[in-house]
Amino acid sequence: MLARIDGLRQRALIAGAGALVLCGLGAFVNPDQFFRSYLIAFVLWNGVALGSLAIKMLHQMTGGAWGLVIGRLLEAASRTFPYTLLLFLPLVFGTKSLYIWSHPEVVGADQALRDKAPYLNTTFFLARAAFYFAVWNGLAYFLSKWSREQDEGGAEPYHTRLQVLSGPGLLLYGFTVTFSSIDWVMSLDPHYSSTIYGILFMGGQGVSALALVITIVVVLGDHEPLKSAITSRHLHDLGKLLFAFIMLWAYFSFSQYLITWSANLPEEIPFYLKRTQGGWQFIAVALLVGHFVLPFALLLSRGTKQNRRLVLGVALFLLFMRLVDIYFLAGPSGHGEGPAALHLHWMDLAAPVAVGGLWLAAFFWQLKQRPLLPAHDPMLEEALEHGR
Amino acid sequence: MKLKRGPQHSIYGLMAEFDNPSALVAAARKAREAGYKKMDAYSPYPIEELVEALGQHHDRLSLLVLMGGLLGLGAGLTLEYWAAVIAYPMNVGGRPLASWPAFIPPAFETTILFAALAAVLGMLGLNGLPMPYHPVFNVERFALASRNRFFLCIESRDPLFDREKTVTFLETLEPREVAEVAY
After folding, report:
1. DSSP string, B79-120
2. What is the C-alpha to C-alpha distance for residues A62 and B141, in angstroms, rounded to an integer?
3. Distance set, CA B118 to CA A240, A371, B69, B71, B106 (Å)
4. Using one digit for the tens of pLDDT, what is the confidence trace for A347-365?
């Protein structure tokens, strides 16, 4: 098992480093495009870690066999925030290139941006980012620490402590994800606002994290201890959760669309006007079909959810659709005012591979540090029994 | 192990009584392996594994619910199209008469409504409910099926059913007792 994880880590590292070198060259030629592609890639993979953190805390609150057997995968993913902080650093130098609100001359000439300047300014933007990472690192640190001490010492008092942390932790997750998605993606178009925006990301992060977990469970599933611990019934449960998160994402996305469409207000409607022309309409349809209709129809049947190869295919495809969704949300808004045509750049694909490769390498490194199943969890026996 | 004998005419089946759910599931599994098909299990609460152990498939109900949902979707959209475009064409803020974004929430609701109705009515229909009489209640101890006992009944219409051999088989499952179920 350890050799297999090491092998995967090495491959991820090589792919990530290779793509990063390419992107580094691209950054010299076209820095604006580099920062844009890199931002989307960063938001995607940081979102996988965030979704894992949230699902881990959710499981501490609700319990259930499904979460226990994948607990260590979620913990390993949420211990990657020190690395995502490093991956965030290039963006610090890209604020000027990415966000028009960081240009004083643009803000000075625009009443709405002047009004938003106390929030949207570079200093406060970076301070908030530092705060988000502090919160995420703190939550992940204590979740992992107490989970490890439970392994060594026994259930109490860690089981209770983990729950006491997870309740407020989920609240903090809600706030930080809302504000970070506004900061990093929504403010690309500082005139636009949507109150469901953060929740849209939370639904998406749930999809990302479950897609990753299912992928890992299937890929490592023919090695002990996962081989005997995770059965097709656990896989079925994970498939059901993925199915639920897809519907949640679709529900949130449609809610935003319906309200914007009904209200038809000049501050909001350009968001969709820009995204229904110049080639963007194809991305919109691809999202509707690929992020909802197709996986919904596939995961509807019990057969798919219990078939390792099929569910792996759906999970990998959904990880790709997460990229498309964030690409769509970032939209044409960075290219100045007015509608802009869809312009796919090679870095839009290279950057997610670069960030993803490095992130996965960090994830596998963390995964190797702990046993894959918790030893002293009071519910473990029951959770394993559930699969038999 | 004593066998409670009923009157000597034909019987509905043979019923074994168990103390706990895992014994019932194990018994159902063994009965299926032995080739019995026409049987049913009774428990105070739902046991997930039992369905699979009995070899029953719920495909028919799933299909009914899916059909109900699709019918509801179609009905909802048709009603909305008829109301908004044909019967009462009204200009709302310059939007087209057939505005699909506005159609989706009610169509979603009718999908759920029809699917739920199909689930409830389909469940009743496939179970043959309401059913004012059922032979299993002729066994006195069967009243415990709603408290803390678990029952497996092999029915006499099963091709493998034999009054003597089935009793012997049921007794190998180590039940509390085996009883004949009179019609």
Report:
1. HHHIIIIIIS---STT--SS-HHHHHHHHHHHHHHHHHHHHH
2. 38
3. 22, 47, 8, 10, 18
4. 889 999 999 999 999 999 9
Sign of CA dihedral A145, A147, A150, A155: positive
CA distance A198 to A252: 10
Please judge whether A257 and B102 are an interchain contact, meaning their C-beta atoms are less than 8 angstroms apart. Answer: no
Within 8 A of B93 by CB-CB distance, chain A residues are 264
Query: Whole domain around residue A43: which residue ranges?
Result: 2-386
Write down all domains in chain B, each with its CATH number in brackets: 11-57+137-182 (3.30.70), 60-126 (no CATH)
Cα A30 from Cα A346, distance rounded (Å): 11
Per-residue pLDDT tens digits for B106-158: 999 999 999 999 999 999 998 888 888 888 888 878 888 888 888 888 888 88
Asked if the bond preceding A157 is cis, omega within 30° of 0, the reply is yes
Q: How near does any CA of chain A get to the CA of B41, in Å?
A: 20
Residue matched to tokens 């006195």:
B140
Beta bridge partners of B155: B13
Compute the radius of gyration of chain A from its Cα atoms: 21
In this structure, are residues A207 and A242 in contact, taking their beta carbons and an 8 Å threshold? yes
Q: Maximum Cα–Cα distance for chain B, whole Å?
A: 82
Domains: count for chain A: 1
| pTM as predicted | 0.84
CA A253/CA A161 separation, integer angstroms: 35
Whether residue A220 contacts residue A5, with contact meaning beta carbons closer than 8 Å, is answered with yes
| Neighboring chain A residues of B101 at a CB cutoff of 8 Å | 257-258, 261-262
- Contact with chain A for residue B119, Cβ under 8 A: no
